[in-house]
Amino acid sequence: MSMPRMSKGFTLTEVLITVGIIGLMVAMGAPALSDLMESQRLDSRSNDLLSSLLLARSEAVTRNTAVALCPIDPDAPEDCDADVGWQSGWIAFEDDATAGVTGGHDASESILDTYTGMGGQMAVVSASYSDFIRYLPSGAASDTGTFNICVADTTAMEIVVNATGHPRLTDAECE
Questions:
Q1: Which residue blocks in the chain are alpha helix, DSSP H?
Q2: Number of domains composing the chain
Q3: Under 8 Å CB-to-CB from 32, ≥6 apart: which residues?
Q4: CATH number of the CATH domain containing 128
Q5: Is residue 8 part of a domain?
Q6: Which domain holds residue 111?
Q7: Residue 73: pLDDT band with limits 50, 70, 90
Q8: Span 60-71, pLDDT tens digits
Q9: 141 near 129, Cβ under 8 Å?
Q10: How high is the pLDDT of residue 100?
Q11: 147: closest CA among 24, 31, 49?
């Protein structure tokens, strides 16, 4: 009497069914993963700008002088350039306004922080601070306003700067 032979592998049908189930699960999970990555990128970039604003405010108080942030072209990171937009990067610098242009950086003013861009699919819009934001020695901002940070035209955060100069993050819609 011989024993039945035991199979040591999978049949082609079993492999195809397993691959099909795995493919279906990946297809269902891909949009959620994409949304998660987009959300994480938005949080990271929003926190970069928020950190620079908090640094500028703190340095204005500590140094007892005005400190400004302005957008820059990454190819010329020591010069303010309002035409490129905040997503291209920014600098924070002591703003003594001796050059006659408040918020514009000149060579005698020390740069405190440089950020060279948020990368693709990011947009930062600010009607209040299209050229610059300036913190006074008291820590107050020269004007109240907002920064709207948007990734891929779908997910947004907003940084609101209040009358005392304190910035805070809130959820928002892409503008």
A1: 12-63
A2: 1
A3: none
A4: 3.55.40.10
A5: no
A6: 13-172
A7: confident
A8: 999 999 999 999
A9: no
A10: 42
A11: 49
